């Protein structure tokens, strides 16, 4: 997400609105479809090859969850669109990874977009586009690729733990969104650890060479996270307040709780944001402190030895008539003077707290 | 736009409100008029010499798009104004390139102003003033000069691809605005690349000489873009919410989508804005780091050789009685002392991590 | 305006509210009264000696504009107040140059305060206090001194150009306010030029000595302009929205246009504000860059000659037994060593890009 | 106010809400009570020893103003509370100097808290807590100590100048608040002068030693002033809008005017705030500029004399075979070389504009 | 609170919503239950071993306060939940220390979350999670561990001082919240002292080594405090405005007062926040000032002795023909020249105010 990647912008430029085109970079994902069909008493789980099989399930029982990985397979999205009579702009948004989190309310269904965030194997922030279509008795979830944060929910459906089996599609939507938001906490935590590491590096004054770059990257990441998370507040708030036959009153308590969680994440993000902005100043003072130290060493050594060298220079002169040169202990007296000068200057710097 | 150019302010100063005067700098553009007249089944495309010919088209068929390049030809604008009975302030705004994006709602027509943004051949941000008058069955678009982002729409009208031929003038307005906004994504992308280039320059510490100036220019450009894009949010929002017979319910879904896109652009702009503001700090630390390096070299060399020079100075003195001078290996012993001092200091600096 | 000048605060302190006292510094302005009395077909222009003559005009014909320069003549203000039955607080505000832009709505009249801005002959920002009383068929304008931006309007009244002669007092109010706001564009332009000059000075690194002071002054000026212009947005917005028998529907289009212009000025002000704030950072980096250059010169020269001087010092020692001194080509060999050292160091600094 | 002083927090901790306890530091103030009892035609002024005497006055005539200095005498506050049946929380707030400006509306009376600001004899910002209880026909004002800004009002009551004698208790409340706000202008003025002094010190580069501290103090003071003044906007706005039988329509014009004044003060405060924040940057550049100057002196002297000393060192060497030493004019030639080097370097630094 | 600690996030990840799990770090707290059961005339205080005993009290008399320390004992929370029929999400929030301050309104009870703040024995900010369930005639308070700020209230219940015994459960809720907020004032005070200490350290220029770290820590702490305190404004405001049978009109005055206090704390927090942000700048100038001083010492000593050493070098040369060397008083004359040079340079530096 973050920036519109060149390819993404290029892909969309000049297209008919409503064209279903995948704008992300996981273009080689396989299409994977799984169905959970459940009610209070029973449940069925199945992996499908063809999206059309899923439609049969969606009709039959109280709640059906169809999860689709691989939104690069736009033809599957289009089939679903045709079956459920979804608005073409929704189909576009399912495949358009640039779409920000939002909720669209239609008469027969709701459409929710949000972002799954995680640090990938290179410790880089990855943003995966997820969208949900919620209708009477079904939830269809669309993901970019395999791997998600919904395993706990899958297990709860299988084992019948918690409320999920006893409630409707709206609760399932809540549960899925809650899983995504819960995962934000992990992300924020990792973020916090990274910042503390940077702070410690700065404090121990052993900054790795590219600390400016690291700080700037952190800024960029926190801004991207903000952008992925903050619109979600409005989304959840609107779902909670919405008077739509698909959202039951009982679920609203849960949505309010979810809203609370997002606010919490948002606040943490803003705290980290301020901390990161402070890091640059902290780094600047670190550099200046180091410079101070360097300058002190130079000043102390130069200030002590330059005058002494001058004295030695004096008695290295070749004037025919320099009486001191003939003194028997002249050399020793000069050493005495030099040593006294040396320690006086040392004492002076000590008093100035430069040593 | 950005700043009111001297000429622009001078031109308008003291004029009767409603005077149609072109305030931009493309004063030598030729007048170019093209007409697209279409319905579901047929379409006609024509280049016109005289604006009055266009009026005939606008009356006949469901949708007519009259595109006029060269708003410096104010007499043509005035003719249109007379024909469609447009308010004199609208005519002024069509020609006034200083006008910010806005929507004016009249009983029989809507008036929309927005800005087309692109980087010109000198890589400078160029802002072109575009306005639309939308009435029953017609859209008139006014541009400063040839060259625009509407080719995809022209093609869609010609080929009948997408919805444009089956819908009304309000959809055409949407399509034209959408083309402008889609192009913002390209702009933002280029902006992002420029910023990353600057960041890389700073990181590789080979900043080109005028990097401060570059950063300040980027700031200026992002502020100008903000100013051209941000009012558009309000414009599109108001068109979507507006209950005007010219805007059909079906088009509102598309306008909401357009609104979403503008929010996305706005968010990117604000992210880049924060990144640019951070660049100056990053540059400052880069400079300070370099200074540190310079100072370290000076300090190391001076701190090593100044004391050694002092030692050499001592034995360059001409005291008659300096016993060491007469030692057989005095010279070699001194070399020994010097070499030990040299390596001790080297070790000291190594331990301080200055080497 | 900007700061309350000592005298201004002192003058007002402890006075009965509603006391008419001039708080500006143009205390020696002469009283100058001019009247424009016009309708669609005829107009009369007269310079008056006595304010009471003006009342006669105001009654007779459709629109009368009484312009009064010299609000230090508070007795004239009081006479007008008595004649038109104005609230004492209005009279106070006419003379109180500290009063910020505002609109007060009374049953029979409107009272508008705004600020005329210009750069005086010393290139300093000057702020002149202007207020308007608008009643049925008359506008009374109050200015601090001679010289204003209304000449274009005077001419339009004389020649009957534009709409002014065909419309009412509300349109005249609009026209006068529009003239003031149009002039803001000039001001903003000059401001922009000043900032660009400062930027160029900084970039060419020949900053005049007091650039910090200049930047701080610019900040102060932009803040004062902001303060004079920003409240006007609310003022014009309220006049436009107001349902007052004095404001006709036809004039509202013009007021909306005026509002647009003020927003435009406001946006420019905020852009310049950000640019000025950036200048200080820019200056800081300029200083640091210069320091870097200075340090490099010192470091290069010291780092090259301090080791060489040490070498020379070695062979200036007086040890009896220094074999090298007796070598036939010792002196030449040493020169060789020194020259090699010299160029090695030069090469080292070259590679570090310090040369 | 500013910070809760330790004693203040300690005093209040764990007390029953509604306990009347003085939290300020003027604990040795004497109790001083004065009464102004007036109507259109007559007035009486009296100094009282006992608060109970005041109650008699408050009942008799149209308007009675009871002014009480010394809110450390909490027993007097409690007596008033009992007599007028005031809510215990009001009594607490009268004595609690930590209380921020506010308005509390009760059925029979209004309670207003605000802050009197002045610079004390040490030029430090002093904040005095003032509160008003306004009922039918009476105003009771509570101050911490003697000395206030109400003398002009006392005189107006005595002489019958202005409207105060002809209007009710609500106008008296307005007049007293207006006097406090008028005094803010003086304060703001002094603040402005201080800032300009600091700016001039910085500009003339003779910053007194503790300028950082001074700037930080100014920041602290402006923040405290903000905090004392800004809530007053809301207070006055609410009184003006309030539909309470104690506030007459006629007085609302005056309150609107007062509101205007507070806005003006607030704007000045924010301008000064930005100026102060800018001072730190200004100081930073001043320091850096000075450093630059110091470094230039060092660089020029070192860069000129280090190479020359090297040359002298060369010919101080004791090689047996240094042909130049035997040249007749060797010494003079060397002087020539040295002088040329000296002026070349001087010219170089001149060209670099370091001299 | 502040950051979600790793364990906390890990604990909650993937759990069924409504699972009661303690996420804090005081996992070894003992369960401690105390009951205050009182009315106007009598009161009973008891320490309980089993939570179920408490239910008996809650039913009997007008007001019962059950205080529970040790929310790590989640089984006790669950029992209460079952007895009072609390929503599972409330039980989760009682134990979830990450929960931000909030108010949840249910038909039969209110649920309030807030944060108790204090500096622990290591002078670190500690945040303790407190929640209240308020029903008809009872308040249940949940704390993480022993030690709180409610002793004053316990005493007031015991002695019957103040209003607490004469009023209902809503007043008790107010009193408990008020105690928490009162304690914020102490916290803020300590914060203020810490900041002033840092300021003084910076001013006396004896910054302890890790002052950057200290400042950054203060930032972090003030951000955490903000986060714990600011949502409380909304909470108290909502309770005050709420029309719930549990909140009586009489208590609303007290809640408004409490709201006022929170605003006061919030304002102080924001003032300190700005002061802390200013500290980094202050530190930066301190460092730069020190650097300036160091550089001055170096410059003065080097600038004086380098030229003198050059002079000595000249007369240390071995040219055969250096006439000055043979002058009888050559040596003394040179000394004279050197001393004059020395004092001239000293005078120069004096005039530049570097000495």
Question: Could you walk me through the main structural features you see in this protein, from its secondary elements to its overall organization?
Answer:
Chains A, B, C, D, E: Pfam families: CorA. Chains A, B, C, D, E: InterPro entries: CorA_cytoplasmic_dom, CorA_TM1_TM2, Mg/Co-transport_prot_CorA, MgTranspt_CorA/ZnTranspt_ZntB. Chains A, B, C, D, E: Belongs to the CorA metal ion transporter (MIT) (TC 1.A.35) family. The structure is a homopentamer of 355-residue chains. Chain A has two domains: 8-286, 2-Layer Sandwich (Beta Polymerase, domain 2); 293-351, Magnesium transport protein CorA, transmembrane region (Methane Monooxygenase Hydroxylase, Chain G, domain 1, Up-down Bundle). Helices cover 57% and strands 15% of the residues of chain A. Chain A has a seven-stranded mixed β-sheet, with helices on both faces. Chain A has helices at 6-12, 51-60, 74-84, 88-95, 151-159, 169-203, 211-241, 249-314, 323-326, 330-351, and strands spanning 32-38, 43-48, 63-69, 102-105, 109-119, 125-135, 138-143. Chain A has 355 residues and is of the alpha+beta class. In chain A, 50% of the residues are buried. At the C-D interface, helix 1, helix 4, helix 7, helix 8 and helix 9 of C face helix 5, helix 6 and helix 8 of D.
Features of the shown structure:
10 helices; Methane Monooxygenase Hydroxylase, Chain G, domain 1; 7-stranded mixed beta sheet; Beta Polymerase, domain 2; alpha+beta; homopentamer
């Amino acid at each position: 997400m973050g920036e519109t990647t060149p390819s993404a912008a290029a892909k969309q430029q000049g297209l008919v609105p409503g064209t279903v085109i995948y704008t992300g970079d996981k273009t080689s994902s396989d299409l994977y479809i799984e169905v959970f069909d459940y009610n209070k008493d029973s449940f069925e789980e199945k992996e499908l090859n063809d999206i059309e099989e899923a439609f049969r399930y969606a009709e039959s029982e109280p709640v059906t969850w169809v999860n689709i990985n691989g939104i690069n397979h736009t033809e599957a999205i289009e089939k679903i669109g045709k079956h459920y009579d979804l608005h073409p702009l929704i189909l576009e948004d399912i495949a358009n990874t640039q779409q920000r989190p939002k909720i669209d309310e239609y008469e027969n269904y709701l459409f929710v977009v949000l972002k799954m965030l995680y640090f990938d194997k290179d410790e880089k922030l990855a943003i995966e586009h997820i969208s949900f279509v919620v209708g009477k008795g079904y939830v269809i979830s669309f993901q970019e690729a395999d791997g998600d944060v919904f395993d706990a929910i899958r297990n709860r459906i299988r084992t019948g733990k918690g409320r999920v089996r006893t409630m409707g599609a709206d609760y399932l939507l809540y549960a899925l969104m809650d899983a995504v938001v819960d995962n934000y906490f992990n992300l924020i935590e990792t973020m916090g650890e990274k910042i503390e590491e940077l702070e410690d590096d700065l404090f121990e004054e052993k900054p790795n060479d590219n600390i400016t770059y690291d700080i700037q990257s952190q800024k960029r990441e926190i801004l991207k996270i903000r952008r992925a998370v903050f619109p979600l507040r409005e989304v959840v708030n609107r779902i909670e307040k919405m008077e739509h036959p698909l959202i039951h009153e009982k679920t609203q308590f849960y949505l309010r709780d979810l809203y609370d969680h997002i606010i919490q994440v948002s606040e943490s993000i803003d705290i980290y944001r301020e901390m990161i902005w402070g890091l640059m100043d902290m780094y600047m003072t670190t550099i200046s402190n180091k410079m101070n130290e360097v300058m002190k060493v130079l000043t102390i050594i130069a200030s002590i030895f330059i005058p002494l060298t001058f004295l030695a220079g004096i008695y290295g002169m070749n004037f025919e008539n320099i009486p001191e040169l003939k003194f028997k202990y002249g050399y020793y007296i000069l050493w005495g003077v030099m040593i006294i000068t040396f320690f006086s200057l040392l004492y002076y710097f000590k008093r100035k707290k430069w040593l």
